[in-house]
Design goal:
It comes from Corchorus capsularis (Jute). The protein is α+β, with helices and mostly antiparallel strands. About 45% of the residues lie in helices and about 15% in strands.
Length: about 130
C-alpha cells in the first residue's frame, strides 16, 4: 500500500476524469472555447466595473484604460494626434516659476514640448 501513496493524485482521478472529459467534449463539441469580439470584451469589462452599482472589482480608471487599449487598433496617428497649433508648449526661455508649473500641472500632461522661437520648432520635452 505504501507505493500507492507516493503516486501523484492525478493517477487516482484519471479513471474518473478522463471519461467525463470525453463525454463533455462529445456533448459540447470540440470548439466550445469562447472567443469574444472586441465589442463583447468591452461590454464584459464595463460589466465588471464598480460604477453605477454593478458590483464589479474594476475601477473607473481601469475600465477606461482597458477600453482605450481595445480601441487602439482602430485608431490612426491622425486621429490620436493633437495639432501643433492646439498643443500646449513652452518656449526655451520660459522661466519655470510657480505660475508656469501650475499651468503645466493644470494641463494634465506628463510631457510638455519645448520650442525655440516658433512653436513648430520643437527641440525637446519637459518631463
Amino acid at each position: 500500500m505504501a507505493p500507492l501513496v507516493r503516486l501523484p493524485p492525478f493517477f487516482y482521478f484519471f479513471p474518473i476524469s478522463y471519461p467525463i472529459s470525453k463525454v463533455l467534449d462529445w456533448m459540447l463539441g470540440k470548439g466550445h472555447a469562447v472567443l469574444l469580439r472586441r465589442a463583447e470584451l468591452k461590454t464584459f469589462v464595463d460589466f465588471h466595473g464598480n460604477e453605477a452599482g454593478k458590483g464589479g472589482d474594476l475601477t473607473h480608471d481601469e475600465t477606461t484604460i482597458i477600453a482605450g487599449a481595445l480601441e487602439m487598433t482602430e485608431k490612426t496617428a491622425k486621429v490620436a494626434m493633437t495639432p501643433i497649433s492646439n498643443a500646449f508648449s513652452l518656449d526655451l526661455d520660459t522661466v519655470l516659476d510657480v505660475e508656469t508649473l501650475n499651468k503645466v500641472m493644470t494641463m494634465g500632461h506628463s510631457r510638455v514640448p519645448v520650442s525655440y522661437g516658433n512653436p513648430t520648432n520643437i527641440i525637446g520635452l519637459v518631463l
